[in-house]
Predict the structure.
Amino acid sequence: MGRVINPDSTGKTRNQLMRTGAELLRHLSQKSELDGDAKDMAAAIVYCLREIDAGIDQSAIAWEKRDYWMKADELRMRWGWAGQMADQLNALILGETWDQLPPLMIKLLPKFADIKITKFTRSESFWQGSHARLLEEKSKP
């Protein structure tokens, strides 16, 4: 019997989310004013970063099950920024401190620098409503 290969691995999902984050950052950087669309994009980045962070933990646990402790630790250290940046961006959005968005974007850009975007592949429907959904999370206990 051959190996079972999971086509939807956490690594593949992480790459797709990084691509999405890079596209959202590009769209946001082209905005001249902060409108509802920009708020939705910022909230969508929070969701992408959260999902990346969750996938890192899944991958690290899989490595630990195989007794690859150092590899799991390295993975967590290399990707620890995702959860931290998601929390910072989330706090910025919930606190309505939109003047802090450009400096935070500047911190995020180097993390996505190696992703080349020649064509946008994500449609507006991906990020639309993300801001409202994030605000709903805040109101839930």
Observations:
- The first helix runs from residue 10 to 29.
- DSSP finds six helices and no strands in the chain.
